[in-house]
TrEMBL record:
This is Phosphoribosylaminoimidazole-succinocarboxamide synthase. Belongs to the SAICAR synthetase family. GO terms for biological process: 'de novo' IMP biosynthetic process. It catalyses: 5-amino-1-(5-phospho-D-ribosyl)imidazole-4-carboxylate + L-aspartate + ATP = (2S)-2-[5-amino-1-(5-phospho-beta-D-ribosyl)imidazole-4-carboxamido]succinate + ADP + phosphate + 2 H(+). The keyword ATP-binding applies. One of its GO terms (cellular component) is cytoplasm. It comes from Halobacteriovorax marinus (strain ATCC BAA-682 / DSM 15412 / SJ) (Bacteriovorax marinus). Coiled coil: none annotated. It holds the Pfam family SAICAR_synt. Keywords: ATP-binding, Ligase, Nucleotide-binding, Purine biosynthesis.
Length: 364
């Protein structure tokens, strides 16, 4: 077992021909990377949450009698075909198993190729994804974001002042905080660059090498996954407002087309979950830093880097603005630890700990 990547939240190991995910107690906000605190039991909670959610989506029994409430499937070829596939075989994911090694739990997943992209001539080089023959068993270099509404703190509000982008999202009027959408709004952002950037559908296809058919299939998968997860969490007494998925090209199917599989992890760091008006996700951690001078300097640094076409925004923040994040209060760390554990237990229908966290988080 060899460590191949130490991320801000999880570590990835190469094991035989597969990968092992080790979820840590670290956390990251605003693309900063590892923050100065650890959240006890967060890693184990994320592992259990992600494992249970993947298994739920993979199980075709959870799709057979389910009908999406907010979108018309009939008449849409891609939605009809994708839903039929899910009802017959469940969702295709990279999850293999949950394994215990040396007293630690890991998620065992299929290995997919993650090309290194270079920043040269003031742009990122995505030729690895667009070359022919088109790559398989390779990550799709996008984060696919879905939104059921505009909760407090949603970044969407900062983008919809652009009429062209508003039309891209299929919205006729500019949403405001608290609005909900009849069907999920889908956005795309870059995945492998130094910082995530929202892009339109044309750019998403261009950098990823997705054909038009594959792009429509990706959107259909995202729509159905988001709707199914929303209903899943509603059964647990939790509202899901938005989230993100990551995908990879798998092998070719019987028709010679590239299959798309769900990868990475699914948990409170990827989803915005709310119960009784309280956010139960990484947004809780973000909110604790929003009013700090450090966050203000992060935004200044990113703005400077974008204006000057630089990729070293973090160095700007540390070295030029002399700004780094502060540690959190012990009581807040303890409450957030309980929140993660409570969410994990909720996926096994045990809701008591999560209910205990609600009034504590309201006091933040």
């Amino acid at each position: 077992m060899n460590l191949i990547k130490e991320g801000s939240v999880k570590d990835i190991y190469h094991f035989e021909n597969d990968l092992l995910f080790k979820f840590s107690d670290r956390y990251s906000v605003f693309d900063w990377g590892e923050m100065p605190d650890l959240i006890p039991d967060k890693g184990e909670s994320l592992l259990e949450f992600s494992y249970n959610t993947f298994k739920f989506l993979e199980n075709s029994e959870n799709w057979k009698n389910w009908k999406p409430k907010d979108i018309a499937v009939e008449g849409n070829y891609y939605l009809c075909k994708t839903l039929k596939d899910f009802r017959e075989r469940g969702v295709k994911t990279h999850l293999l198993d949950k394994v215990l090694m040396d007293g630690k739990n890991y998620l065992k997943v299929k290995k997919v190729h993650v090309p290194n992209i270079e920043f040269k001539d003031k742009s990122w080089d995505y030729r690895e994804f667009t070359k022919k023959p088109r790559p398989i068993n390779t990550i799709i270099p996008l984060e696919v974001i879905f939104r059921f509404g505009v909760p407090k703190g949603s970044s969407l509000l900062g983008r919809v002042s652009d009429d062209t982008y508003l039309e891209e999202l299929g919205l006729s009027t500019r949403p405001k905080e608290g609005d909900t959408f009849k069907s999920p709004v889908i956005e795309f952002s870059t995945k492998l660059e130094d910082r995530d950037q929202y892009i339109d559908g044309a750019r998403a296809m261009d950098i990823s090498g997705l054909s038009l058919v594959e792009f429509e299939k990706l959107k259909s998968i995202t729509l159905l996954l988001s709707l199914r997860l929303r209903d899943y969490f509603q059964d647990l007494g939790i509202d899901m407002w938005d989230g993100k998925f990551e995908f990879a090209f798998a092998d070719y199917d019987e028709e010679g087309k590239r299959e798309i599989q769900l990868i990475d992890s699914i948990g409170p760091d990827e989803l915005r979950l709310i119960k009784d008006g309280v956010q139960l996700s990484k947004e809780v951690l973000r909110s604790l830093y929003l009013q700090t001078p450090w966050h203000e300097n992060v935004m200044k640094s990113k703005s400077t880097a974008k204006r000057e076409n630089r990729i070293d925004w973090k160095e700007i923040c540390i070295n030029e603005l002399k700004s780094t994040p502060s540690k959190l209060e012990r009581e807040k760390i303890e409450t957030i630890s309980k929140m993660y554990k409570g969410l994990s237990l909720a996926t096994s229908k045990k809701r008591e700990l999560l209910d205990q966290c609600i009034p504590l988080i309201k006091e933040f």
